[in-house]
Design a protein that fits this description.
CATH class of the largest domain: Alpha Beta
Strand content: 15-25%
Number of helices: 16
Distance between the termini: 44 Å
CATH topology of the largest domain: Dipeptide-binding Protein, domain 3
Number of domains: 3
Largest sheet: 7 strands, mixed
Strand order of the largest sheet: 8-9-10-1-11-19-12
Length: 511
């Protein structure tokens, strides 16, 4: 409560003093964004993509992919002009765009595509590398992927931001400078080229005037790592930044009330939920379905929606966004604390229990606090643990997080991609699983009949719900504060993405 009061007081002070710019604004040809976390060098490397939406904030600026979501097209041809699938489903051939060069002048060829695929080590890398039998360079502008067996979801995993495997890096340059050299000076094919980075603090990019799709109108893009939300708001108020990421609760309301600013929002294919990593431990209270169901009934989802996202999010009973291909729409659990307490008593916890840490994905600390308060209301006592985002991701992938995890992901793809990353027992972000779900997932991955595949994926989602594997909260509305210099912020142009995109469409107002 004291933290909430402090935030309200600070927001009021900002509202009083922020009308007059107290800081020097960015230059006319520069747009500055305040990102919601510290900046990690791994964000700039497609090979490291985590299965969450965060890295694509940076990849969309610095790099390019064979295909990616663009306005009006969730799988738009980009570095690949076209592609085709063989009749037997075993071969995918991509025709590459000719005449393109990386920011260092190296020509873009099929060798770069093959090299980038084999170098990829992010989410679903094991699945991709196991299912792709061979990558064949047909000629400098044609590349062929040969599968061991038909895989209807190859494009969903490879050619969308469900992974970063189709985002291309320069083979020749990487072989010259090595992995450490690339980390210090990344080179890409995107609308902006790398200038410098102060890890954790600031990334500076300059427009590539030869970018194939469209010459960016903004010459310089600066992204600042600002984990504290009230600080991002203050920077927006003073004109130090032009766009402030993730305005939530009081800060979002403050932006909305300021005539000089505007609050832009989009509801991407994202989901927030509470993860129960200890449900696979027989000695843990979370192994009991009744306890997990009690946690779900403790959550006031609409109250959280109003407090965090001004009521603009979609409540849900699933971790798979309703707009995704093959998603099964599941209604949210009701808010019923009385029934939650009865369930806990039936499970042997009439006085509740100490559930240890509740670790929210940074920087969503206030959401973690709200969830902890809701759980405490029925007797499930937790301690909110805050972490830096890179440390959180490393700990999560290494299965080192215990207690409860507050998960938020906006990575595109389809239901199968989400299940592969967060549900099956071998997933990057799971601590266990069910054999029948694993078996059915493997079967659907080879099923080429769409209706049968959909039935299989829907059955997996029903099992997930019946077994109360998660506590889904909502499909979040992502709110960004936009300053007076910005004409086109790019927010919502590509509905699949939660961040401003594509960057080459962004515009500042004319002086």
């Amino acid at each position: 409560m004291s933290r909430s009061i402090a935030r309200i007081v600070l927001a009021l002070l900002i509202g009083v003093s922020g009308g007059q710019a107290a800081a020097q604004g960015p230059p006319d040809q520069q747009l500055t964004l305040a990102f919601d976390a510290s900046l990690a060098p791994t964000f700039l490397d497609p090979a490291e993509t985590s299965g969450l939406g965060t890295p694509f904030v940076f990849l969309y600026a610095l790099h390019d992919a064979l295909s990616k979501p663009l306005p009006g097209n969730t799988m738009a041809p980009c570095l690949a002009e076209s592609w085709r699938e063989s009749a037997d489903g075993l071969v995918y051939e991509f025709k590459l765009r000719e005449g393109l060069r990386f920011h260092n002048g190296d020509p873009f060829t099929a060798e770069d595509v093959k090299f980038s695929f084999h170098r990829y080590r992010g989410v679903s890398a094991k699945l991709l590398h196991e299912r792709v039998k061979d990558v064949q360079v047909v000629d400098p502008h044609r590349v062929r992927f040969v599968l061991h067996t038909p895989w209807p979801d190859f494009l969903a995993f490879y050619a969308t931001p469900a992974t970063g495997a189709a985002w291309i890096v320069p083979k020749k340059y990487l072989e010259q400078v090595g992995e450490e050299g690339f980390k210090r000076q990344p080179v890409g094919l995107g609308p902006y080229r790398f200038v410098r980075m102060t890890p954790g603090i600031e990334l500076v990019l300059e427009a590539d005037e030869q970018y194939w799709r469209k010459k960016p109108t903004i010459k310089r893009l600066v992204i600042k790592g600002v984990p504290d939300r009230t600080t991002r708001l203050a920077m927006l108020k003073t004109g130090e930044v032009d766009i402030a990421f993730l305005m939530i609760g009081v800060e979002a309301a403050t932006v909305k009330a300021d005539a000089r600013l505007r609050l832009a929002h989009v509801v991407p294919p994202a989901a927030w939920w509470v993860e129960f990593p200890e449900q696979w431990k027989k000695s843990s209270p979370w192994a009991d379905r009744r306890v997990r169901l009690a946690a779900n009934l403790a959550m006031d989802r609409q109250g959280l929606n109003e407090a965090e996202r001004l009521g603009l999010s979609r409540l849900t009973g699933s971790i798979i966004p309703s707009g995704m291909d093959f998603a099964l729409r599941i209604e949210p659990y009701p808010h019923d604390p009385a029934q939650a307490k009865r369930l806990l008593a039936d499970a042997g916890y009439p006085n509740g229990f100490d559930a240890g840490d509740l670790t929210p994905l940074p920087p969503f600390t206030t959401f973690g606090e709200a969830a902890a308060n809701a759980l405490a209301g029925v007797g499930i006592r937790t301690r909110v643990r805050t972490m830096e985002r890179v440390t959180f991701m490393e700990s999560w992938r290494a299965k080192k997080l215990s207690g409860l995890i507050l998960v938020a992901t906006a990575a595109p793809g389809n239901a199968a991609a989400r299940i592969e990353a967060f549900v099956v027992s071998t997933a990057l972000y799971t601590s266990g699983g069910y054999p029948d779900i694993d078996d059915l997932f493997r079967s659907q991955a080879q099923e080429r009949d769409r209706k049968r595949r959909e039935a299989m994926l829907h059955q997996i989602q029903r099992w997930m719900h019946e077994r109360v594997m998660y506590a889904p909260i909502f499909e979040p509305a992502t709110l960004h504060g936009v300053g007076p210099r910005v004409d086109e912020a790019g927010i919502g142009l590509t509905s699949q993405l939660y961040f401003p995109s594509p960057y080459e469409e962004m515009r500042l107002k004319k002086p």
